[in-house]
Amino acid sequence: MTDPEVTRSEVVAVACAEAWRGDGEIVASPFGTIPAIGARLARLTFAPDLVLTDGEAALMANTPSVSADRSDIVLEAWLPYRRVFDVVWSGRRHVMMMATQVDRYGNQNISCIGDWARPKTQLIGVRGAPGNTINHTTSYWVPAHSPRSFVERVDMVGGVGYDRAEEAGPAAVRFHEIRVVISNLGVFDFATPDHAMRVRSVHPGVGVDEVTAATGFALVVPDDVPTTRLPEADELELIREVLDPMRLRDKELPG
Amino acid sequence: MTSDKRTALDDMVAELRPGMTVGFGGWGSRRKPMAAVRAIVRAGIGDLTVVSYGGPDVGILCAAGLVRKVVYGFVTLDSIALDPHFRAARQSGSIGAMEVDEGMFYLGLLAASQRVPFLPTRAGLGSDVLRVNPELRTVTSPYADGEELVAMPALDLDAAFVHLNRADTHGNGQVLGPDPFFDELFLGAATRRFVTAEKVVAPGALLEEGPIQTVTVSRLFTDAVAEAPRGAHFTSCPPDYDRDEGFQKRYAGSGADPAAWTAFSERFLAVDEAGYQDAVRELAAEVAS
Asked: Closest-CA residue in chain B for A81?
């Protein structure tokens, strides 16, 4: 790292923020602590029109820290779960979900490991991933990049990737976009002819070989792989002083 | 003359029969009709198809061996990501499952409420939800677009239970917390519709506690109502009470081994609802001392 004081978690928070750049007035729905910091950072800097939820049943007018008490949150509109679907199905949302498994074409699994009929490990279930991915932009956050999380084929397709959307036809492709996958090692996208996952950048201090070795399928690796950008001074100050003074980011991504 | 729908909780549950499809309101570990779940466990009515935005309602009924099948988009305890008993039941293969997208689930309840066989949606297209539920079908738009969409079938329920903050004796129900969830649709989708509430008040008195738009459940959709103070415990029921995180941890710990479940169920489920609430208070006193 050029700035020894900048942590990996801070680099990732900025990479998450970048996912929402240019999205305009839509709901940014982050899952996980660092994506939550990222969404708030984006709103406080280059994406001021983003709409954020309070994690319950409302939208937030202010942009408090991720550890804020409910009393610190100023609400701007009601959004109970039933109405979340009005937003999802209207397309005015970009969610960053987590993925226990993600594959070459961006299919995602948080349902189970093993055969769905009798799983080796039951996880939470598909949740809203099928509907999210087919209706609006979706990104993923994978805190532990390994051949177990970046797999050739996911065991259960909840979030729909490019190959499966294509197979399902025009109604599935129409609003489908998997924008980026962000891991502890790098940022990945699908900007390839067949939408196979590509290395967009590696985080400072991470080698491309390290990324490919930690991935269970052949990534598309450009000749020149950029380094994920470092936080600007104002971004670092916002992360540290305003958005995450309790350093929850380091619990999600130690070291 | 409007009837007084007050009914004892155990009498509601006595209407259930083995093999029924039963819906439970709330979401995750939030405002779940837990008093009703406990009453079902006491009554030992099994072979149930449980339809739920799943939380500990699903886990407890699985652990008690009363479940044939779960219809869900997820099962979670919120502050604890996974329910150990649901996991164990799925991993042992002891229950069947219909896993769908959360929005598909909503449309299934809505279709049942509207007495239509299905509602179309994009949600599910391309996903393995269609692979693991081979009974699901797609439908082609009859209009010029010709789009092929998922036809989410109606989730018809034999019975539904919801737990609300307040209800009146005629069966109107009030949510004082921020989210009514999908409770109205569970009631709309069900043949027999059961409401429990923290407090049951006289008709007209609901407006003393909140504006008219908090009265989200009409008596049109209620067959019976029971007062069940702390009836959502250990899930959250704002503004009446928050989730009992300590107790939820204990519940989650009951999935560690069969002995842990036996100890939990003997202390907290082999007793009536008043006995349960006493046992919870005694536990809190033990922990505090």
From this structure: B181
Q: Please tell me the pTM assigned to this model.
A: 0.97
Q: With contacts defined as CB-CB under 8 Å, which chain B residues touch A100?
A: none
Whether residue B181 and residue A120 make contact (CB cut-off 8 A), yes or no, is no
Give tens-digit pLDDT for B168-178: 999 999 999 99
- Please report where in the chains the tokens 């093993």 appear, as a residue: A114
Tens-digit pLDDT profile for residues B223-250? 999 999 999 999 999 999 999 999 999 9
Give residue limits of the domains in chain B.
17-100+155-202+214-251
How far B227 CA sits from the closest chain A CA (Å)? 25
> What chain A residue is nearest to B30 in terms of C-alpha separation?
A56
Residue A33 has pLDDT above 90, yes or no: yes
What residues make up the domain containing A73? Answer: 8-249
CA nearest to A54 within chain B: B178
pLDDT value at residue B289? 83
> Going by C-beta distance under 8 Å and a sequence separation of 6 or more, which residues neighbour residue A208?
A199, A202, A221, A225
Option in B75, B125, B132 nearest A116 (CB): B132
B74 vs chain A: nearest CA distance in angstroms? 4
Q: Which residues of A touch B72 (CB under 8 A)?
A: 125
CB distance B101 to A128 below 8 Å: yes
**Residues 6 or more apart whose Cβ sits within 8 Å of residue B211:** none
User: In residues, how long is chain B?
Assistant: 289
**Joined tokens for residue B235:** 């899930």
Number of domains in chain A: 1
What pLDDT is recorded for position A44?
A: 98
Digit-coded pLDDT (tens) for B108-146: 999 999 999 999 999 999 999 999 999 999 999 999 999
Q: Tell me phi and psi for residue B42, to 5 degrees.
A: -60, -40
- pLDDT interval class at A108 (50, 70, 90): very high
Residues of chain B contacting residue A119, judged by C-beta atoms under 8 Å apart: 90-91
Mention the CATH class of domain B17-100+155-202+214-251: alpha beta
